[in-house]
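Incident log, support desk, overnight shift.

02:14 A customer reports that sequence design results differ from what the structure should imply. Their input is reproduced verbatim below. On-call engineer (initials T.W.) acknowledged and began investigating.
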């Protein structure tokens, strides 16, 4: 199965398509490790877009 491409963007509430480090697009960039299959979290109680910046090794 192919990995989601780096730069893939998903929204809060969507299912994470790939384990790795994800970064928000709101305010100061925040990074978080999120596992494949988890629900994408809000940031500071707000819905945000998350971008995949690196894969888990």
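02:41 Re-run completed on a clean worker. Output:
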């Amino acid at each position: 199965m192919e990995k989601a491409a780096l730069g893939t963007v998903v929204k809060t509430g969507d299912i994470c398509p790939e384990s790795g480090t994800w970064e928000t697009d709101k305010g100061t960039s925040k990074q978080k490790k999120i596992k494949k299959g988890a629900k994408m979290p809000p940031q500071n109680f707000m819905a945000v877009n998350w971008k995949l910046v690196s894969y888990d090794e």
